[in-house]
């Protein structure tokens, strides 16, 4: 069950830095004001409606900058946030500064750390493909996973005698 706190975050004129720890079903959220503390906003469902409610709680369009770690959930959240007028950066996980000995990981702690580091300017964003590039990448991944057996056929072993079971593309 998704949890949420009813804390409202609304100081006029400040930029709010939203750290999101994104999973397939949930998003842990934290916000850091320009000069204040980092607040844990709880865990919300990973749905369009829940994200829209979160953005209303955090502030008007233009005052919020969001970030989350690149991962298996892809870029759908990035596109959703940018369509709503929120600047969003997807962060390279390997370039997130880690303190020595800081091994305890929880979703909420990760969200707070992202918000804090984002506000400090210590995170490195990655290039985000547009939806057409992403569709092309999905197609390429699908073709890579497609079963195709290429092996020498009987005879000379020349390319014309190869068994291309499962391949229906052009033979050049």
Key features?
172 residues, alpha/beta, Nucleotidyltransferase, domain 5, 2 domains, 5-stranded mixed beta sheet, two-stranded antiparallel sheet, 28% helix, globular, disordered N terminus
* Broad structural category: alpha/beta
State the CATH topology of the largest domain.
Nucleotidyltransferase, domain 5
Residue-averaged pLDDT, rounded? 81
Tell how many strands the DSSP assignment holds.
7
The share of residues in extended strands comes to: 15-25%
CATH architecture of the largest domain: 2-Layer Sandwich
Percent range of helical residues: 25-40%
> What is the strand arrangement across the widest sheet?
3-2-1-4-5
Inertia-based shape: globular
Low-pLDDT sequence parts = 1-12
Largest sheet: 5 strands, mixed
CATH class of the largest domain: Alpha Beta
Can you walk through the features of this model?
By secondary structure, this protein is α/β, with parallel strands linked by helices. The chain folds into two domains: 16-120, Nucleotidyltransferase, domain 5, CATH 3.30.420; 131-165, no CATH class. Helix content is 28%, strand content 24%. It has four helices and seven strands; from the N terminus they run βββαβαβααββ. It has helices at residues 48-58, 76-83, 107-120, 131-145, and strands spanning 16-22, 26-33, 38-45, 64-69, 87-91, 149-152, 162-165. The longest helix is centred in the last third of the chain and has 15 residues, at 131-145. The chain is globular and about 60 Å long. It starts with 15 loop residues before the first strand and ends in a 7-residue tail after the last strand. The model is unreliable at 1-12 (pLDDT under 50).
């Amino acid at each position: 069950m998704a949890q949420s706190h009813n804390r409202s975050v609304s100081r006029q004129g400040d930029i709010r830095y939203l750290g999101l720890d994104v999973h397939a079903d949930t998003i842990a959220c934290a916000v850091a004001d320009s000069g204040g503390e980092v607040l844990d906003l709880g865990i919300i469902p990973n749905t369009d409606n829940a994200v829209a409610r979160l953005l209303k709680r955090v502030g008007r369009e233009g005052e919020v900058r969001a970030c989350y770690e690149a991962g298996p959930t892809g870029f759908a959240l990035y596109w959703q946030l940018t369509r709503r007028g929120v600047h969003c950066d997807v962060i390279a996980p390997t370039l997130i500064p880690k303190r020595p000995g800081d091994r305890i990981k929880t979703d909420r702690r990760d969200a707070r750390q992202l918000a804090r580091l984002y506000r400090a300017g210590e995170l490195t964003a990655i290039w985000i493909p547009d939806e057409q590039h992403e569709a092309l990448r999905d197609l390429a991944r699908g073709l890579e996973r497609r079963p195709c057996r290429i092996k020498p056929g009987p005879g000379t072993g020349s390319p014309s005698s190869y068994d291309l079971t499962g391949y229906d593309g052009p033979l050049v």
